[in-house]
Amino acid sequence: MSGVAGRPPPRRAGLLFDLDGTLAQTEHLHLAAFNVILAPSGRVLDEAAFVRHVSGQANEAITAHFFPDATLAERQRLADEKEAAFRSLAAHGGVDATPGAARMLAWARERGVATGLVTNAPVANARLMVEVLGLADAFDLVVSADETPRGKPHPDPYLAAVERLELAAERTVVIEDSLTGVAAGRAAGLGVVALATDFTAARLQGSGADMVCKDLSNAELYAWLRQRLGLPATDAADLSEAP
Fold first, then answer.
1. Could you tell me whether strands 191-195 and 211-213 are parallel, antiparallel, or unpaired per DSSP bridges?
2. CB contact set of 80 (below 8 Å; sequence gap of 6+)
3. Which is catalytic among the residues 20, 140, 156, 177?
4. 146 has catalytic annotation
5. Cβ of 41: how many Cβ atoms within 10 Å?
6. How far apart are CA 229 and CA 233, in angstroms?
7. What are the pLDDT digits (tens) for 29-61?
């Protein structure tokens, strides 16, 4: 579609979500799945080590950290086993959407804001999660770890989403929950919102995110998004409209 006088059409505003810990509360299942593959070596991963060495990281980096002497083929096998264990756990329940996620996705789509899911997880995980959460039709695009040469903290996944959705970088916001994800969003030149738990709040406050909040049901977050996404200032829709 061509723009006025042969100019390309203006690029769109976009809202791009991370998956684990951001859109879906799955960290406890990933912790359990990693302990499945660590058990044969007599190791147990606790929550503090999970946040330090796993949260937001790609499997390549995680397996290199925990299995430094393994070959690349062995690390890939371990990563595949871990993801299969995670999917088995997730398919049997115990996964909740982050409070406010479904409402925010609907709010964005009602205003013509493009929506994307951008994750370091394999595509099979992403497909399962959106199905489990009832959000299969909520995204215009899914970018998974299988689709870019480098995952987060590199900007490649977010840059791919920007190009494929034809987004205006200055009107695009990333929502993340880890230092790795925040770094990827910033490196891509996008606005970044960080979701913090009590455990991660102190680290994320110094991450360089434009805004840090506890969940997606936040009136101040909606006000900031309206401004950053370039939505009309008269748009009164905010937390008061959420179910």
1. parallel
2. none
3. 20
4. no
5. 8
6. 11
7. 889 999 999 999 999 988 888 888 887 788 888
Given 18, 140, 156, 177, the catalytic residue: 18
CB atoms within 10 A of CB 6: 6
Beta bridge pairs of residue 96: 25
Longest dimension (CA), the chain: 68
Q: Where are the domains of the chain?
A: 11-25+96-233, 27-91
Q: Which residue in 98, 128, 84, 92 sits closest to 27, CA to CA?
A: 98
Tell me how far apart the alpha carbons of residues 149 and 171 are, in angstroms, rounded to a whole number: 25
Catalytic annotation present for 18: yes
The CATH number given to 11-25+96-233 is 3.40.50.1000
Total-model pTM: 0.82
Environment class of residue 234 by beta-carbon count within 10 Å: exposed (0-12), middle (13-18) or buried (19+)? exposed
CATH of 27-91, one of 3.90.1170, 1.10.150, 2.30.30, 3.30.420: 1.10.150
Note the pLDDT tens digit of each residue in 83-134: 899 888 888 877 888 889 999 999 999 999 999 999 998 898 888 888 888 8
List C-alpha distances in Å: 103 to 4, 195, 210, 238. Answer: 34, 16, 21, 10
Residue 38, CA atoms < 13 Å, CB-side half-sphere: 17
Rg of the chain, C-alpha, whole Å? 18
Strand partners, 194: 176, 212
